[in-house]
Amino acid sequence: MTAAPGTAAPEPHPVLAEVTDRVVARSAAGRAAYLERIRSAAAQEPAGPSRGSLGCANLAHGAAACGPDKLTLTASPARNVAIVTAYNDMLSAHQPFETFPALIKQAARDAGGVAQVAGGVPAMCDGITQGRAGMELSLFSRDVIAMSTAVALSHDMFDAAVLLGVCDKIVPGLVMGALSFGHLPVLLAPAGPMSSGLPNAEKARVRRAHAAGEAGREELLEAESRSYHGPGTCTFFGTANSNQLLMEIMGLHLPGSSFVNPGTPLRDALTAETTRRALAAAGDPAAAMGEIVDEKAVVNGVVALLATGGSTNHTMHLVAMAAAAGVELTWDDFADLSAVVPLLARIYPNGTADVNHFQAAGGTSVLVRELLGAGLLHEDVHTVDGPGLSRYTREPFLDTSGDGSGSAAAPVWREGPAESLDKSVLRGVADPFAPDGGLRVLHGNLGRAVVKTSAVEPDHRVVEAPAVVVDDQDELLAAYHAGRLDGRDLVAVVRNQGPRANGMPELHKLTPALGVLQGRGQQVAIVTDGRMSGASGAVPAALHVTPEAAQGGPLQQVRDGDRIRLDTLDGTLSLLVAPEELEARQLEARESEGRESEGREPDGREPDGRTGVPGAAVGTGRELFAAFRAAVGPADRGAAVIL
C-alpha cells in the first residue's frame, strides 16, 4: 500500500477527507480571522529587514551588546533570526541547547545574516515534579511559555525564528506563542534523544518490584539512573518524543531530524541547516508559520499521534495548538481517525523498544511513506522544507565531500528505507500491530474522557468494578500500602484533579502500584478528571473526564462502592447507579453548593482566595496561579487559559 518514491500519493482515505472537511467547515470563521491578522501583520512589514521600521534609539538598544554582529544589525540589509530557547541544565532534554545559540549565530553569519537570543522560556520537568506539589504548575506552564514566546518576539527586530524546545508543555507553548507571530517563518530545532540505557522492560520490572516492596530504594534509584543517564530526551515514547514526531509530521522540523542524538556532527549540521532555512524563508509568504499550520497539517498531526500510540496529553495540546492557528479540533476528530488509522509502532510503554530503536528501524521516513501510501496523510501541505509531505520520506546524512573531516559538513537528504528494518518495532499498513490507533473517546453519564488502549491488553479493555473514591492520589497510595486494595477488583476514581481544581497534575505515580494489583489478577482501572504521564501504560485509564468535578461534573457524585463500567470496546464510561438515585445526589450537591457559596467572592472563591477544592492551595508557587485556575477552559477544549 506504500507509494513509490516520486509518485503521486493516493487519494485521501474517505474518513481522513471527511474529518478534514468538517474541521475546515467548523474552523472557517476562526481560521479566516487568524489569516487576516497575520497577513495584515506581514503587509505592515518594511520591504527589507523587520528592524527597518525601528527608530534609531530603538535599534541602538537592540544592537548595543551584539559584538561582531552590531554593524550587521545597524547598517546592513541582513535578515535577523530570533532564537527562543528553553535551555536549562536541569532537564536532560534541554541541556544540549546550551551550545545551540553560538552554533546558530555562527551559521547565520556564514549565511550573511544574524541571529540573536530573543528570550528564554521556563522549562519544567514532569519527571522531577511527579507526585509533588510543583506538578500543579506543569500544565499552566504551557500558557506561560506561550506568553513568554510572544514577549520574546515582540521587539520588531526579527525576520524569522528558531525555537529550541523538546519536552511536554514546552513545545506546545512555543508553538502557541509563535503562532501569534504567524507571519514569520518559524522552525523548531530539536536536541534529540539520549542514547539507549537500561532496557525499558527491566526498568518497568524494578518499578513494579519496588511498588510491591520487593526492591529497595537503592535498587530503584540505580535502575532509574541507568535509564535516564545523559543529555537528551528520555527515550520512551511519552509526551516529549510525541512532540518531536508531531513537529516533523506537521512540517515544522527538517525531515528526519527529530530523533538524531545530541552531541553528534549530524545533530550540529541539522541545527546549522535549520538556521540557514529560517534566513532563506524570511519574506516568503508561503513559508510563514501560520500558513504552514493549517487544517491539513493539524489533521496530519493527529494521524501521526494515533499511528504511533503517542501521548494522551496531545488530546489537549494539539487542540490548543490548533486553536492558536484558528483551527477548531475536537475529541470526536481524534476518535473517528483512530478507528481507521492502524497502530504501526511499538515503543515503550506500548512495547519494549525505545525511540532510538524506532529511528534505527526506519523512523519517521517509513512511517510517512506507509501512511501516505494508504491515503492516511495529506501530502498537499507546505512544510519548512518546501511543498509536499512526501519530502519527509527522506533521511538526513552528512555530506563530507568538502574536506573529508565531517566537522563542518552540511546535511544531505536521501530516500529512507522502503520498509521497516525491524518489524517488532515498526510495521507497515498491510501488517499493523493493531487495526486502530489505540485511542478511544468514552461517553456516558460520567462525562467524556479519553483512554489510551495501545498498551492495554485485550483482557483489560473492559472493566466493571466497585469504585474507590479519593480526592488525592496519596490517599489511594496510602490505601494500597495498607493492603486495603488487595484481593478485589476496583475502579480508582481520582477526582478534583482537573484544570480548575489544581492545574491538572499528572498522576503517573499511581501506575506502578495499580500495575502490581493488575499483575495479581485483579481487574483495575482509573477514572479521573486529571491526566497521566505520556508514558501511560497497561492499566486502563479514563483520563481528562469532562466536565471536571470542580465544576460540578458527575464525578463529584460518585461514592465508594458504586459500580463503574469502563468499556473501551463500545466507547462508554458509565456509573451504574439508578437514574433517580443519581438525580437525588445531584440535587443534594446543588443545595449544598448553594449553602457553601454564601460568603464567597463574586468569582466563587473563598474570601482568602481558595477555590474550596482539595489541592487548590498555596505554596510552591501555586498561589500565583489562582487566576489561571479561575480562567482555564475544559480539557476537551485544550485546557487553555490564553485562547
Automatic annotation (TrEMBL):
[4Fe-4S] cluster binds at residues 167, 234. Keywords: 2Fe-2S, 4Fe-4S, Amino-acid biosynthesis, Branched-chain amino acid biosynthesis, Carbohydrate metabolism, Gluconate utilization, Iron, Iron-sulfur, Lyase, Metal-binding. It catalyses: 6-phospho-D-gluconate = 2-dehydro-3-deoxy-6-phospho-D-gluconate + H2O. Residues 587-618 are annotated as: Disordered. Binds 1 [4Fe-4S] cluster. GO terms for biological process: branched-chain amino acid biosynthetic process; D-gluconate metabolic process; Entner-Doudoroff pathway through 6-phosphogluconate. This is Phosphogluconate dehydratase. It comes from Pseudonocardia ammonioxydans. The gene is edd.
